[in-house]
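Review form for a predicted model. The reviewer records the input and the model, then writes brief findings.
Reviewer: anonymous (R2)
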Amino acid sequence: MMTLIPSHLDGHVAILETDLGRRFRLLSSTGSQRFRIKYCGTLLAEHGLIVGDEVPSLVVAQAVDTGEEIVIFDEGRHGYNAMFVDEYNPAVLAARRAQTIFSHAGHNEFSVEIEVIDNIDWDDEQDDFRDDSGTLRLIGGAEISAERLRADGFDALGIVVITDDGQRLDIVDEELA
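Model under review:
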């Protein structure tokens, strides 16, 4: 079975083996695996997780070698809820800036793994999102293909950053459906 890559990560990941969902290692366009993490949201001190507060969270990886920025999670646009349940003001989404740099114990450069979990039976559910003409539509009205629905309609997401000394830190752990 082919592993579906979420469209916002296409071209920026290597597929990793997993038993649960789809797991990826983030890569820059040059193949680099070293990133600084920038975010818009709240860092829960007791858990170290980035979450949305009054606006949906936004997490960006910036490649250390080139400065290239890759949006690795946008709570306002990625996953089942953003696609089919929650509507956000486009101006609010556009105004967010991922400017806070994530650091932990003196580390601010990491490799990144992303895991998306799919517990949705799209064969049964996709008809719920068809309009009268049979076209699949997002909550905001945009048309979506069945392939993109399956790739992007994940219902949970986790992001782990890994320090040079191998310490793994969960920075995003979201239920999205």
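Findings: DSSP finds four helices and eleven strands in the chain.
Further findings: The chain has a mean pLDDT of 93.
Recommendation: see findings above.
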